[in-house]
Amino acid sequence: MRFVTRAAIVLFWIVVLAFLHYTLPQNDVVRITDTYERRQDFGGMSRFFWTRADGSTAATQNRDVFFIQSRRDGGAVRVYRNEDTGWGWPPYFKFDSSNVQAVASDLSSTAADPTWVAVSHYGWRLEFLSIYPNALSVRAVEGPDVRIWPWRAIITLIVLAAIFWAIWVRWRRFRQARIDPMLDDWSEGFDAAGDRFGRRRRKLRDWFRGTGR
User: Fold this and answer.
1) Which of 41, 69, 139, 170 could form a disulfide with 34 if both were Cys (CB 3.0 to 4.6 A apart)?
2) 8 Å CB contact between 33 and 69
């Protein structure tokens, strides 16, 4: 039973961390090589990772989607989709995918004369499911070694930690004030009932011994 409880706790935190890693914004410093628009088919598990203009899960079979191709300083390829999140989840309230695409196109460059940009995004790149991270914004930076602090992610984690701490403290106080005394009363009641049962059992045993003489 202890193993099952620990496994459930570990699984819970894995799900929470995966959810935060997917949802919170991240920053990549890349060189944009191309931007384009492509008709995308939605099917299977990947349909849950696409959004419509209103931010809801994609319900259509296919539609046009903006894409941004790029490369890191070491040559690794990074491909982003560029979709509005609208009023849906994650709550980035992004309605300017066309503007982001225009900026990305303007900042595209070649390896001989690179222009380095910071792409803020959320999501994962899973090639076997054709899932792409969603670009939130694109801006030029000084070079490939520039350090960008994920302030939005840090602030979000601090706020979530504060909320979790407040809930845990209040739950602990509530448990100490209401639940623990109730459990103590039940425990004392069970002990008292056990004592009464023991006394009656001894009396009954003595009575049987007396009648058997």
Assistant:
1) 69
2) yes
